[in-house]
Every structure is written in structure tokens, then in C-alpha cells.
Amino acid sequence: MRILVLGGTVFLSRAVAAEAVRRGHEVVCACRGRSGSVPDGARHVETDRTQPLPAELTGFDAVVDVGRHPSWVRAAVERLPDAHWVFVSTINVYEDESTPGGTPATLPLRAPVWEDVDLAVDPEAYGPMKVACEEIVRTGTASSTIVRPGLIVGPGDPTGRFTYWPERLAEGGETLAGGSPEAVVQVVDARDLADWIVSLAEQRTTGDYDGVGDPLPAAELLSRVAAGVGAEPRLTWVPDAALAELGVEPWAGPEGLPLWLPRPEYDGMLAHDPTPSYAAGLSVRAVADTARDTLAWLRATPDAVRTGITREREATVLAEWRRNR
Fold first, then answer.
1. Are 117 and 69 contacting, i.e. CB atoms less than 8 angstroms apart?
2. b vs e for 227-261, b when ≥16 Cβ sit within 10 Å of the residue's Cβ?
3. Are the beta carbons of 63 and 86 closer than 8 angstroms?
4. Residue 263 and residue 266: Cα distance in Å, rounded?
5. Do residues 172 and 77 both lie within one domain?
6. What is the pLDDT of residues 179-227, one digit of tens each?
7. What is the mean pLDDT of residues 271-297?
8. Judgement on whether residues 8 and 130 belong to the same structural domain of the protein
9. Which end of the chain, N or C, is less packed with Cβ atoms under 10 Å?
10. Percentage of the chain modeled with pLDDT above 90
11. Are 31 and 55 in a shared domain?
């Protein structure tokens, strides 16, 4: 097959291109190329998606797109309507983030935003723009698969949201954990997602699917991370309300605690039902293996992105929690 990856230098799109090359496909990566190199065996066509696509980008059997700007996706669809499209969307398209066990068949979508919005100005536009992009792909191509990932993790993660935990647990000592140990979370390794995306393209699978792994209690997920990095966790669970009072923020950022989300308003965000996706061919590796590989990558990549509170701030929060309690 001739496969066009719109992207191909960062994390998931790079993993998709690498997997397609490994399977013997002819792979072209269309991107600016400023974020890194394309995988060995793939051809790079320098592309700025704010401009018309290069004329040579034609004649592909499948297209994989991770774009979020409706105008970019529309232009590419108009150029390549006869290919099978795998569009990488997001679980942020769902309006309901509080109901566990949701699937594409049960969860309502946000209202689409058809304009290109600067996320630095309005980060809430991310999900609605992806809804618009999905509709452009769904109605403008010969066939399509929509994949809506949750929290994508593994080596090469540019967000640092999961990588916090393999590194922190490997260091040992008392560790701050957020909310209830029973709160459900889920992650998916980028390599597993890439393997599935290539298969969806090969088989011209149609439909909408969530790209998510097994939903697990937070304590169980962190236990598996610890096992992967050879650590014995000493977790201190601090309730949602106490964390908020102490100025800890959820999810990411310099005051953030990764994987922690306030409940019950986010009970469903990381608790989707993966059954339909597993039935469509998604297979996920053990969390411990992802944690092991992520830590190895972190140690080999000193400038990798990290997020979350500092160790000093963590110690302060734990001390204040004990004092207040």
C-alpha cells in the first residue's frame, strides 16, 4: 500500500509511520520536519499545512491524519477523497466526561467548531475542532475510521503526563497520590495504537472507535507502573478537596499531579469501555512494560518533557496534609 502520514516526526504519527514501514508499505510523511526526522524507510515531503499541499501528494491508498485544524483537514480531504482515511481524533470530543463505561455509540459529542482556533487563546476549542474534523473526514472520503485516543503514553511522549510516574516511583520514598485509590484511569501505549491504526488502514475498517486501554483503579495502575520500574511504592492518597485547598492542580503543569482528575465530574474521562476497540483489533501491552520502556527512554533523553509538581513541592504538600489532618 501507499500510505500518507500527515505528520510523522513526533510520537504517535512517527510510530504509525515506523510501523507501516516495518510492514513493507510505501510510506510518505508530509510535514515541515522541524520537530524531528521521519523514520528510516519513509520519505519526507516538506509540507506546511497553512499552504496548499504539494502537488506530488496524490495517489495514496490510505491517509493517516492527526490534525486538529478544520481548514487543514478539509484541504487534505479535498485533495485525497478516494483514499481510506484513518483520522486520529480524541476523547475530548465527548460532551459527557462524568459517565464511566462510555463508547462512541453511547456518548454525545460536543458542538463542532468549524474555524481554526488558536488553542493558546481558547484551549476549550480543541475537542470541538476535532468534532468538525471528524465530520469533514466522514462525509468527504470514500471510507474512514475515526480513532479517539485517551491518554497516550510510552517512550517519546511529548506531554510528560504519564512519564512523571515511572520516574517518580523509581526514585522511591513517600509519594503523593491524588484522590481515591479506587478512581478509575486508563492509558494506551502509542506503539499499540500505531499498530492498530496501520491495521485499520490495511483492512479499510470503517466506524468510530475509542483508542483506550483497560480501565483500572488508580492504585492498581500505579502498582503496575511500580512493578515495571522495579519499585516498591509508598503512596499517600490525599483527597480531591484537600489537594485543591493545598493548591495542587489536576492533570499537568508545574503545580499539577499527573493522572489525578477531580471526581465525580471526570469519572468518565479515563474510564471508557474498550470492548468495541478490542473487537476491532486493538491489542494493548502490559502497563508494566510501558512503564519500563518509558523510564529507559527518559534516562536516555535528558531533555524529555516533564510535567507535574517538583519533589520539593510534593514534600511540602504531604507535610501540610499531615499537619491539617
1. no
2. bbbebebebeebebebbeebebebbbeeebbbbbb
3. yes
4. 5
5. no
6. 999 999 999 999 999 999 999 999 999 999 999 999 999 999 999 999 9
7. 98
8. yes
9. C
10. 97
11. yes
What's the grid cell of residue 274? 474498550
Q: CB within 8 A of 93, min separation 6: which ones? A: 109, 110, 127, 128, 130, 131, 134, 148
The reported pLDDT for the residue numbered 174 is: 96
Same domain membership, residue 173 and residue 133? no
List, in sequence order, every residue forming a beta bridge with 146; answer none if it has no partner.
Answer: 87, 208
- In terms of domains, do 204 and 169 share one? no
State the residue range of the domain holding 260.
164-186+215-271+285-324
Q: Look at residue 278 and tell me if it is in a domain.
A: no
* Region of 214 on the Ramachandran plot (φ > 0 left; ψ -120 to 50 alpha; else beta): beta
Task: Evaluate whether 50 touches 67 at the Cβ level (below 8 Å).
Answer: no
**Percent of the chain having pLDDT more than 70?**
100
CA torsion angle 234 286 189 126 (round to 10):
-60
Q: Which of 95, 87, 88 is nearest to 112 (CA)?
A: 95
- 83 with 204, same domain: the answer is yes
CATH number, domain with residue 63: 3.40.50.720
Residue 54 CB contacts under 8 Å (≥ 6 apart), including other chains: 30, 45, 46, 47
Peptide bond into 264 cis (omega under 30): yes
Q: Is residue 32 one of the residues assigned to a domain? A: yes
Q: How far apart are CA 144 and CA 151, in angstroms?
A: 22
Residue indicated by cell numbers 512519564: 163
Q: 70-79 vs 126-140: helix axis angle to the nearest 10?
A: 10
Per-residue pLDDT tens digits for 57-95: 999 999 999 999 999 999 999 999 999 999 999 999 999
pLDDT digits (tens, 9 = 90+) for 94-144: 999 999 999 999 999 999 999 999 999 999 999 999 999 999 999 999 999
Pair (203, 222) in one structural domain: no
Q: What is the per-residue pLDDT for 35?
A: 86
**Single-letter code of the amino acid located at 45:** V
- C-alpha cell recorded at residue 26: 510505501
**Amino acid occupying residue 93:** V
